[in-house]
Amino acid sequence: MAALKIAHVALDVPLEDAFDFRVPEGLEARRGSLVVVPFGRAKKVGVVVGLAARSEIPSERLRSIESLVDDVPALDERELGLMEFCARYYLRPLGEAIGAALPSRLRQVRRRVIAAGETAATAAPEPRDAPRLTGEQEEAIRICMRRPGEFHPVLLQGVTGSGKTEVYLRLVAETLARGRQALFLVPEIGLTPQFEAQVRSRFAGAALVAAHSHLNEGERARAWLAAQSGSARLVLGTRLAVLTPFRDLGLIVVDEEHDPSYKQQEGLRYSARDVAVLRAQRLGIAVVLGSATPSLESYANALENRYALAKLTHRASSAAAMPRVRMVDTRADRPHEGLTFALLEAIRARMKAGEQSLVFVNRRGFSPVLFCRACSWHSSCSRCSANLVLHRADSELRCHHCGHRERIPAACPNCGGIDLAPVGHGTQRLEEALREALPGARIARVDRDTTARRGALRGVLDDVRAGNVDVLVGTQMLAKGHDYPNLTLVGVVGADAALFSADFRASERLFSQLVQVSGRAGRGERPGEVLIQTDFVEHPLYAAVALQDYDRFAAAALEERRIAGFPPFSHLALLRAESKRAGEAQSFLKVAARNARRLAARAARADIEVFDPVAAALERKAGFERAQLMLRSRRRGAMQPFLAEWKQSLGALGARHVRWAIDVDPQEM
């Protein structure tokens, strides 16, 4: 009788790391193999993560693997090891980590066979149309290539327009020439078409695939298999692409590495930037983190020589200077419909000169809230502790958190009055105000509403480059990564709202956002100007933006973080909880806090600090009341084993009506 052979199979279910199945005689399952297994009354695709000769499950209860998934090669040890690390570090089931990496089409039991493709030739396409490098770019490339064949993290800090993309392209060309693959990460899907076009024009016939959530499942599965087989030489994508398997990865580039979009906010709450650095370390390759405004964590790593630092302090074009930044005092120049006289006059001057302008406001819709002047009623969401945003073009009020929509009321629901007024300014309202103030102007709006249709964003941006747009109105989708040589003016509306946030990262993010959007101006031969409308013209943050001095801002911000004990001088974790029952999330967190303090005291972990529970920034969302509990430690080595032990104890608290999760290294507080 043949010896019993057991496979531990990870499944994308929120239960445990792996389930035991009997391996039928003659089935060649190995670690990393994709297999079809019975699960309850259904069948699922899982990944074999281990093999054994025995199981703790009684033999009569063991079910057998039904078949191998033969059109998807087994995951190799490097990929499995990365997923196992992510599961351990971010405290999630291994099956969930594998599920985040594996396209859903490949996890379908019944589907059409998807061909992996043949491995491409190792020779890279001949690069063409490469501009001449500046001295700073040459030095940056030298720093990035200083240690071939070794783990080499580099922070590429370059002012906007300094040619970071050209440095990336040269590094990619060198990697492809060595017959290896490259991974290029961008924070937002809107940035991928532009870079993809640049790569295809530079490397004719380059074997490039994109990986992001706007692809259909078949496209994503084919891209995944092409990278795994080696037929794709360059993968360009958003945060999910960092978990893509490669045959021979030789370089990782993380563009706009400071961007909070790299942090996943649900399920496996991983940071793609941090996983990229870990992956490069495990493979012994270079990872380049690029930004005009690096995250304070990355900047501190560079100051402490954990990362190499390459700087680009001037714009790549000798004719392109950094834009002039000045504040418009809105206490003296009172805005009409959100726009000051100074900003409108500046736009008119640019139109007369045949130049383009960008009006930036980080709020879509017509107005943040509808307000009754008679009784002070305001449009609020019944499911969230947030206002319903007025979208006048669609004649509706909309919640940007849970998606709830309702028609605009003809009269106040509270007092019946008809004096309802929009308060505040979104992209729709600014677009309307600009059309009224600038008759005949060609105005285009770019936000999530106007770019929801596939290809819509590319169409608008093509019109901008063709000179068919005079004024762009947009949100943070336009703040980074785009290059418009004829755009010479940027106007910023509503920046003051972020000055007084309770989030300790608020000033860092506002500084970064303002520097990034300022960098859209004056990238060609014509000088650029930036006007920031504000009630606080003397605020130190605005002064730092006007000077374009990141190093001075970062030094002050790091000192504040050091005194307060926030990252990068400590490590944080949040226990997030939510319940539809009033007070239940807070009650659960109070018990969890007592539990954490007992564990810390019992193990003499004096460096684990447990805070009291507080309401979440958005206290109610989609009908759930939300709260959070913060833990802090000066040492990551102390935090990780404590969190694993604490998580096990939380499962025994029996909070049946509470959904909870631990967020390691949170970005949203």
| Number of helical elements | 16
The neighbouring-strand order within the major sheet is 8-9-7-10-11-6-12
Uncertain segments of ≥5 residues (pLDDT<50)? 117-124
CATH architecture of the largest domain: 3-Layer(aba) Sandwich
Share of β-strand residues = 15-25%
Radius of gyration: 27 Å
Number of DSSP E strands: 28
The biggest sheet amounts to: 7 strands, parallel
* Head-to-tail CA distance between termini: 59 Å
Query: What is the fold-level CATH name, i.e. the topology of the largest domain?
Result: Rossmann fold
CATH class of the largest domain: Alpha Beta
Question: Tell me, what's the shape?
Answer: globular
* Portion in helices: 25-40%
Q: Helix- and strand-based class? A: alpha/beta
Count of discrete domains: 4
Mean pLDDT: 90
CATH H-tier superfamily of the largest domain: P-loop containing nucleotide triphosphate hydrolases
Describe the structure.
The chain is built from 16 helices and 28 strands. The longest helix has 19 residues, at 584-602. A hairpin with a 4-residue loop joins strand 16 (389-391) and strand 17 (396-398). The chain has a 7-stranded parallel beta sheet, sandwiched between helices. The protein has a 6-stranded parallel beta sheet with strand order 13-23-22-14-21-20, with helices on both faces. Strands 2-1-4-3-5 form a 5-stranded antiparallel beta sheet. The protein folds into 4 domains: 6-107, GIY-YIG endonuclease, CATH 3.40.1440.60; 135-312, P-loop containing nucleotide triphosphate hydrolases (Rossmann fold), CATH 3.40.50; 324-367 and 424-560, P-loop containing nucleotide triphosphate hydrolases (Rossmann fold, 3-Layer(aba) Sandwich); 571-664, 2-Layer Sandwich (Alpha-Beta Plaits). Helix 3 crosses helix 4. The radius of gyration is 27 Å and the shape is globular. 29% of the residues lie in helices and 22% in strands. It is α/β, with parallel strands linked by helices and 669 residues long.
